[in-house]
Amino acid sequence: MDKSTELYEIIRLIRPVHRRLARAVEAKLQGTDVTVGMRAVLEVLQEAGPLSVPEVARTLFLARQQIQLLMYALEDQHLVERKPNPAHKRSPLFALTEAGETVFGDIRTRENNEINAVCELFSAEDLQSSQRVLCAMLDHFAEFEDDPDRPKALE
């Protein structure tokens, strides 16, 4: 098989892998009152620290309005809290609360068991190679990324 065909086969696998990963993440969230979208926001805040809604939206390649709704839901559950934003008075920063840190840590522990089982199937070189391929495709197709504040519907 030539390299173009090999890459095309990888691209064809991305959608079903994405769907199954989303379902697996959803299953691990049962009983937490956290949705897949809320989990993604918690992860960004856990990694980056306090961020504004537009910053989280850009990080996740999603519309600001979607992130705002998720942030309200997380705030209602006391998993995030507002902090003053010195750069913008009307766009507060959001940070994980202690409860948010605990809930996200518990979620990651559940997920790590699954990830560790799959890792047994691959060498470190396999995983590094896969990461290089996916990063190169992200870079190559970057010009097709939506503006998070004005996402276009797929036709």
Structure description:
It comes from Roseibium porphyridii. Residues 7-143 form the HTH marR-type domain. This is MarR family winged helix-turn-helix transcriptional regulator. InterPro entries: HTH_MarR-typ, MarR/SlyA-like, WH-like_DNA-bd_sf, WH_DNA-bd_sf. There is one protein chain. With 155 residues, the chain is mainly alpha-helical. The chain has helices at residues 3-28, 36-48, 53-60, 64-76, 98-119, 124-140, and strands at residues 51-52, 80-83, 93-96. The protein is built from six helices and three strands; from the N terminus they run ααβααββαα. The chain has a three-stranded antiparallel sheet. Helix 2 crosses helix 5 (98-119). It is globular. The two termini are 31 Å apart. The mean pLDDT is 91.
Write a brief caption for the model.
This protein is mainly alpha-helical and 155 residues long. Helices cover 64% and strands 6% of the residues. This is MarR family winged helix-turn-helix transcriptional regulator.
Defining key terms:
155 residues, mainly alpha, single chain
Helices and strands, with pairings:
Elements: H1 3-28, H2 36-48, E1 51-52, H3 53-60, H4 64-76, E2 80-83, E3 93-96, H5 98-119, H6 124-140
Antiparallel strand pairs: 1-3, 2-3
Helix pairs in contact: 2-5, 3-4
Main β-sheet description: 3 strands, antiparallel
Estimate percent helicity.
55-70%
In terms of per-residue confidence, which ranges show pLDDT below 50 for 5 or more consecutive residues?
none
Using DSSP, what is the number of strands? 3
Strand content: 5-15%
The number of helical segments is: 6
> So what's the overall shape?
globular
Spatially, the strands of the biggest sheet line up as 1-3-2
In round numbers, the mean pLDDT is: 91
End-to-end Cα distance: 31 Å
Sheet/helix structural class = mainly alpha
Radius of gyration computed on alpha carbons: 18 Å
State the order of secondary-structure elements, H for helix, E for strand: HHEHHEEHH
Domain HTH marR-type: 7-143
Pfam families: MarR_2
Organism: Roseibium porphyridii
Protein name: MarR family winged helix-turn-helix transcriptional regulator
